[in-house]
Amino acid sequence: MPLPEVASLVRSQLVAGDIDEVNRVFSDAFTDRYHRDGMTGVRVPELNPAVWRFAIAAAGPGAMVWRDDAGVAAFNLGHANGVEGWMGPLAVRTDWQGRGLGQTIVAAGVEYLEHAGCRRIGLETMPRAIENIGFYSRLGFTPGHLTVSMVRDLHGVPPRAGQRFAGREAGMATDRFHALVNEVEPGLDVRRETELTLASTLGDLTAVGGDRWTAAALWHAVPLSSSRSTTELRVLKLAARDRGAFRLLAETLLAEGARRGVERVAIRCQSAYAGAYRDLIGLGFRVQWTDLRMERASPPPVSDDGPVTFSNWEI
């Protein structure tokens, strides 16, 4: 039961017209989090509005916002991807923190994802943020493995011609990618994010294996933040039938990034896939950042040399 002051807030669907307000709440809330952790020199930038539009469209009914007389008080984007559901970004305006609103928006996200049929529900937070870990733990989430953000600069990487799936082949590519993902991770549905990406100028798909795809990745190439000048090919979803196909796909992504003229390739590697992590290190990727994945149920075990699935729980 929400506190009376929280119950006075108005909840509605988050839409593209809310982006400016939501962006400010996001930046201020995460900057405050860093400052409370002692990193007073950090200022979290606002995100690229194009990325927000994609995230809101991908979340659909799961994009929620809470308002008071001053405007946006909090928001939570719940993403239902078949059996998998995740929340993010989510934030509470600084003057509302510590008043029960965070619990309310997380509970609303969980309720939406459960009703959408998701069996795995989770989110990611900073590993050192013990307050956050404790908060989510009290709401039924358990710490799992790390998500390791890894990047590889493309200086000296030879470009290689690749196929573009956006346009007339977008429908075929979406179906093939969905089939591959479901082969290696049954029940995971990435069609909405794939369709939105291929229908826009945000990114594309890269696949290997000829007519029978053995691995493929969905990626974006627009800057994540509105102030970032570094260009990168940023992987959102990735599926590979085995480690060999994963390595070939990673090499192909590097060549694709070089062909498109971006500065680096970024992959968020799930540390449960220890073999894939070692492969990325061997290909020259370096660790940039870590997040802690928290779920309401234990994730299934994975084989070190078996299929690989990276499902990004960030935008």
Computed Rg: 19 Å
Determine the strand fraction and express it as a percent band: 25-35%
Query: How many β-strand runs?
Result: 12
The major beta sheet can be summarized as: 12 strands, mixed
Q: What is the CA-CA span between the terminal residues?
A: 30 Å
Shape: globular
Proportion of residues in helical segments:
25-40%
Q: What's the overall average pLDDT, rounded?
A: 93
Supply the number of helical segments: 9
Summarize the structure.
By secondary structure, the protein is α+β, with helices and mostly antiparallel strands. Helices cover 34% and strands 29% of the residues. It contains 9 helices and 12 strands.
Question: Overview of this structure, please?
Answer:
The protein has helices spanning 4-7, 19-36, 49-59, 101-115, 130-138, 170-184, 191-198, 243-260, 274-282, and strands at residues 10-13, 63-68, 71-81, 84-92, 120-125, 142-153, 203-208, 215-220, 232-240, 264-270, 286-295, 308-311. It has 315 residues and is of the alpha+beta class. Helix 6 packs antiparallel against helix 7 and helix 8 (243-260) packs across helix 9. The two termini are 30 Å apart.
